Amino acid sequence: MSRFPLFIAKRYLFSKKSTKAINIISLITALAMAIGVAALIIVMSTFNGFEDLVKSLYKVFYTDLVIETTEGKFFAPEEAIKALKNTDGVLAYTQVLKENALVEYEGKQTIVEMRGVDSDFYHVVDELDDYLYSGGTELYYNETPAAVVGTGVAYKLGINVMMPNTVLNFHIPRNDKSNFSDIANAFRTQQIYAGGVFSVQQDFDNQYVLVPIDFARDLLNNYSQVSEIEIKLSQNANTERVKKDLQGKLGHNLIVKTRFEQNATLYKVMKTEKWAVFSILSFIVLIAAFNIVGSLSMLVIEKKDDIAVMRAMGAERNTIRNIFLSEGILIAGLGSLLGLILGTGICLLQMKLGWVQIPGDTFIVKAYPVKLKWEDFTMIITVVLCISSLMAWLPAHRSVKKLRTMIPGKF
Question: Which residues contact 144 (CB under 8 A, 6 or more apart)?
Answer without folding.
Answer: 193
